[in-house]
Amino acid sequence: MALKIWVSTPFFYPDMSRPWSEVLDDMLSIVDAAEDLGFEGVAINENHFQNYVTNPSAITFATLAAARTERIQILPGIVPLPNYHPLLLASQMSLHDHVANGRAGIGVARGGARFQFDRIGVAPQDVRGIYEESLEIIRRAWVEDDMSFDGKYFAFPRTTLVPKPITKPHPGLWVAAQSVEGVTRVAEQGLNLVTAANYGNFEPFGDLDKIIAVYDEAVKKTGNPRGEVMVYRHTWLGHTEEEATRYFDNVVSEYNHYLAAVGGAKKTQDERLTTRGVGEDTMIVRAGCVEPATETPSRDNLFEKYSDPVLTTPDRMIERFKSLEQMGVDHVTCLMATGMPGREVVKNMELMAKEVLPAFADN
């Protein structure tokens, strides 16, 4: 099966003088274009209380997206499980799966920044435990009747989801991991993997190779079937390299907003592929605006220097995506909307549909 190409709805909102409704309209335009142009699916993220990601509910937006489409896959995610009671999340996903008529999955994670947890009363030392219990409860609640649970963080008497998902046995479950330890755990649990650069972007060659090798080796040790792998890449297509880097400054801006949340860039592969602790909250946010980091990567020789971003011409984008396919990547999700005008994002999707997607059509 050929590599499948998706797009994301990042809800990046660097200019808060704009009405947020315009951001919403831009994200819906991405959904509509993905449906019309032949992309495989749309991945929808969420976050709260700041302008790096301004979608407070991935599942709500995903259900809206499902209701206006008929073909594409709809993946709310990444959803931090400690934000929710798992029974309610499982129930909401059942509704989404019915609206999507089986085109649904969900991407989950423990959450990687303390800023949000401090504001909803989740203790940093409890994040991992809450995540593990939540994941178990969701997986069981989708398929069991009269399920009960007695854990450290959640306890409830016998409960049955009504409705259960339309997808049998349940919607696809994807887990976000960016470290060697995290990827190994995903493989051992027999789940699909979503991964990206652990520090946002400008990822040197070799990091992703190691992550996928670790995942595959861990899968082999279990003896279970391999899950699917989805990789995020910042993309922009141009007829020339100059045209492809037209919005380079927007890509750098988004990168620096992400670095503000995760504590800055890391220089060595071991640092980049080590599990990030929730740690102290060092992100500065005033009136909802993140104070971004100040990294200044160069646009020179991007294609030769970095696995991500992929800001290049059609032939070289195909070359890069083919290398991901050979590495064992099943889906690549293109993160395109990093502050550029929404109409330009749709035009770039149209160019990708014409110049890149045909190279990955199933025979």
CATH architecture: Alpha-Beta Barrel
Q: How many structural domains are formed by the residues? A: 1
Broad CATH class: Alpha Beta
- Record field, number of beta strands: 16
Q: Write the CATH fold name.
A: TIM Barrel
Low-confidence stretches: none
Provide the gyration radius in Å.
20 Å
Strand content: 15-25%
Question: What does the main sheet amount to?
Answer: 10 strands, parallel
Question: What is the structural class?
Answer: alpha/beta
The proportion of residues forming helix, as a percent range, comes to 25-40%
Q: How does this model look, in words?
A:
The model has no long low-confidence stretch (mean pLDDT 96). The protein has 363 residues and is an alpha/beta fold. The chain contains 13 helices and 16 strands. The protein has a single domain, classed as Alpha-Beta Barrel (TIM Barrel). Strands 1, 2, 3, 4, 5, 8, 9, 11, 15 and 16 form a ten-stranded parallel beta sheet that branches. It has a two-stranded antiparallel sheet with strand order 6-7.
